[in-house]
Structure formats: C-alpha cells, structure tokens
Amino acid sequence: MAITINSTRENDTDQTVYFSIDFDGDKKWHADIPKDADPQEFLDAKEDTLKVEILRKQYPEADVPQLEDKTALESFEAWIAGGAKNAEITETIVTPAQPAVDAVMGERQKTVEGEEEVTTTEIVEVDGKMVQKSVTKTVVTNTPETKEVPLFDEAGEEVGTTTVPVMESYEVSPAVEAVEETSETVVVRPESVVEKTPWKDTAE
C-alpha cells in the first residue's frame, strides 16, 4: 500500500492525519480531512493528487503543460522525464503601419529684429549716499514688419498708399513619412531547468 496512516489528531471541525507515502522514497506528510471521513479511504482516493502536490513542493517553479489524454500526475512525471525544463516563452510585438502625414503650415506676420536703447532710472548707493541715476541699456526688439502698397478707391483710381502687414508661412508641425507594419519576436522567458528542492518530512 502506497499510503500508511501513522497517527491522527482530532480538531474542532476536522482531523489532521499524519501519514507516510511511498513516492520516490518514503515521505512523511500530513493532511487535514473531514472529521467523519475514514483516513485510509480518503487519502487512498486522493493518492494521485497528493503525489502532484509533493512534486509541486519539490519543483516550486515548475510550469508543467497539461498533456492531452494524460492526468495531472502523468503530465508532471513526463515533464520531469523530459529534463524538468520550463519551456521558452516568446511574444510577438507588432508595430502597426502609419500613413504618411503632410506638414501642417500656418501663416503669421513677419518680424524684424533690431536693437533699441532703453533708459531707466535706478537708485544706487554711492559713497554712502543714495543717488538717482539714469541707466541706458541696449535691448533686442522684434518689430512686426509692414509695407506700403497702393490704395485705390471704388472706381479703381489710385488715391494714395496704405500700410499692410508682411506675412510669411511657417511649419506648424513637420511632415511624417509612412511607416510599414513591423513585427518582432522577443523572448519573454528563456528555457530553464528547474532545480529539485529536497523533501522535508512533517514532524508529528
């Protein structure tokens, strides 16, 4: 018999059963089961489930695929027989295509950069006295550019001149070239061998 009951302990709502299971060597473990269940019958019915749980404790990082027409225990044992390896996981990253976008142009009044002398009044301390003095500084200015053009009356006769702003085009947003769809496969998790953790018996 693969499972041997060693002892039981009555609890308020269930019972704790200490048992030995012959699975890759004799292992001592315990389980909490219904209070009215027969320990031997209950654990015998759960034998395969217990063995899977033992393997999960020994291979805590295992990523075991469920094989078609195989039980969970058979799938786990096949995974171990195959080298206890977690399979490589890859992911395909798709960058969607982007259509070409024309530059967006706007129009604004041109400015003319120049220099201008600005005089300000400052109060400074000179030889212990507060002195008011004029300070002249040269500052850079940007003056809206205009031009004179002929002015006509309703009959089409030139009657003088008028001033209008000089306009210029400028790029609000640049053109964008079309981009083709691309895909790249990256390794999310490389293949790895899962080390087996030594089993620790349960102390009664």
Based on CA atoms alone, the radius of gyration comes out at 44 Å
| Largest beta sheet: strand ordering | 1-2-3
Provide the β-strand percentage band.
Answer: over 45%
How many helix segments?
A: 3
- Class from secondary-structure proportions: mainly beta
Oligomeric state of this protein? single chain
Mean pLDDT: 93
Total of domains: 2
Report the biggest beta sheet as strand number plus sense, adding barrel if it closes.
3 strands, antiparallel
Low-confidence stretches: none
Query: What is the rounded distance between the termini?
Result: 21 Å
Spell the H/E element sequence. Answer: EEEHHHEEEEEEEEEE
The helical percent reads: 10-25%
* Overall body shape: elongated
Tell me how many strands there are: 13
Keywords:
204 residues, 3-stranded antiparallel β-sheet, two-stranded antiparallel ribbon, mainly beta, 13 strands
